[in-house]
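Quick one:
INPUT:
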């Protein structure tokens, strides 16, 4: 990047110098031309006011300063010339400046020599006798002038190139350095750039955006890795017990009653794995499914009543009473997801309850509330319970058949249903989970 900026700066400098040299030569040449013509005009006028003897004498003087004077007759014949031999000169009638002098009294012209190295300037004035007096001067042409100046221009170009190379190196360093710093800072190798003085403020929002995307990516990667590790760990526990019990049976070390007991353990372990795999599949389905969900009007009051009936045996086992109140409550959502949401919330409210506890399900005005007077969740864990595999009390969760994924699934469903989830809970008092569909 530094090199590219350096080269560009030097190209710009070279173009600028050449352009300036050309333009200033051209301007200078224009002024020079005008001056030469003005001089010639003055001489021609003075000469035209003199008689022939005086003018020829004066012409002698002029030839010293390389000014040529020519007198041309009425019909274009050269009568006098202070430089050339008159006899060898052709008729001048058709020369532009002479023609103009014949017709309007005066005229001028500039002609280049064949080699283009010189320019001849002519100024002609008509004499009272009908002839014309002409002054002329030979000067270097613009090409010649530029040719002379060219070595100096090259010298200046080289000096300026060296200077601009040094300046551009310093400049690019100071331009590029903050960008490099930002790149480091995005990759987490440098300081955070907010508050850094040497960084372009215009780039900070872009860099913040890239940085947050980068962090997001890293986070997602971490979460995925952690999830895989957790899944393996969760599957390992029931598999270890299945493997252990079946090995004992295989070795013929158990009597019939123990075999039956062990088979029961194996069955429970396999069931646990099935529940776990089912939850994992549900989550990954919701993570990856990009096809739109079938949304419809769903009465969550009806779902609450069905759920109460379905969980009745479990509630009885935990000595918990489930109450349903409220009224018909239609929300626009995916039906099986609503059933799953209701099930997970009520299941938790029963499992994390005390004997003789209560669960109240209430549906009203686009809002579902599942409340219990169970063990509650401490303030610091209220956010974390929605993380995958997070449990406040691992053994209680396992013992009651929990996977640590129920609330993660709930959170996902709530997001996909464009609803809002509110947790009110205090340790030892109970928990209320509210799903608000108004949005
Ligand atoms: P689990 O399968 O362990 O129940 P969840 O994701 O459903 O997993 O819940 C995560 C954790 O949140 C549970 O382990 C439990 O500690 C806590 N929790 C969930 N619901 C309740 C509740 N109603 N009362 C108290 N704690 C709860």
């Amino acid at each position: 990047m530094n090199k590219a900026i350096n080269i560009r700066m030097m190209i710009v400098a070279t173009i600028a110098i050449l352009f300036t040299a050309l333009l200033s030569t051209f301007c200078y040449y224009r002024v020079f031309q005008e001056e030469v013509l003005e001089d010639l005009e003055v001489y021609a006028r003075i000469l035209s006011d003199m008689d022939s003897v005086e003018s020829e004498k004066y012409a002698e003087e002029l030839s010293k300063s390389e000014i040529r004077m020519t007198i041309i007759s009425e019909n274009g014949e050269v009568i006098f010339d202070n430089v050339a031999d008159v006899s060898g000169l052709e008729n001048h009638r058709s020369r532009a400046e002479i023609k103009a002098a014949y017709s309007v009294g005066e005229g001028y012209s500039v002609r280049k020599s064949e080699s283009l190295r010189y320019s001849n300037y002519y100024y002609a004035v008509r004499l009272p006798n009908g002839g014309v007096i002409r002054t002329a001067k030979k000067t270097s042409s613009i090409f010649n002038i530029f040719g002379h100046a060219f070595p100096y221009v090259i010298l200046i170009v080289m000096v300026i190139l060296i200077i601009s190379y040094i300046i551009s190196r310093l400049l690019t360093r100071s331009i590029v350095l903050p960008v490099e710093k930002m790149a480091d800072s995005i990759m987490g190798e440098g300081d955070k750039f907010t508050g850094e003085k040497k960084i372009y403020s215009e780039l900070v929002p872009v860099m913040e955006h890239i940085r947050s995307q980068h962090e997001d990516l890293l986070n997602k990667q971490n979460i995925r890795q952690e999830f895989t590790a957790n899944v393996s760990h969760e599957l390992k526990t029931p598999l270890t017990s299945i493997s252990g019990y079946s090995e004992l049976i295989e070795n013929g070390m158990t009597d019939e009653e123990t075999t039956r007991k062990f088979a029961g353990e194996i069955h429970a372990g396999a069931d646990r794995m099935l529940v776990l795999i089912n939850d994992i599949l549900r989550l990954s389905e919701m993570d990856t499914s990009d096809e739109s969900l079938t949304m419809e009007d769903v009465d969550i009051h009806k779902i609450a009543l069905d759920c109460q009936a379905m969980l009745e045996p479990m509630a009885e086992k935990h000595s918990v009473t489930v109450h349903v109140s409220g009224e018909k409550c239609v929300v626009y959502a995916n039906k099986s997801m609503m059933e799953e949401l209701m099930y997970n919330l009520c299941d938790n409210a029963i499992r994390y309850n005390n004997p003789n506890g209560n669960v109240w399900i209430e549906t009203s005005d686009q809002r579902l509330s599942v409340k219990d007077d169970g063990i509650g969740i401490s303030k610091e864990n209220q956010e974390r319970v929605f993380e995958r595999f997070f449990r406040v009390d691992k053994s209680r969760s396992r013992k009651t058949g929990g996977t640590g994924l129920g609330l993660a699934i709930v959170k996902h469903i709530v997001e996909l249903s464009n609803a809002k989830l509110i947790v009110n809970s205090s340790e030892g008092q109970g928990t209320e989970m509210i799903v608000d569909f108004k949005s």
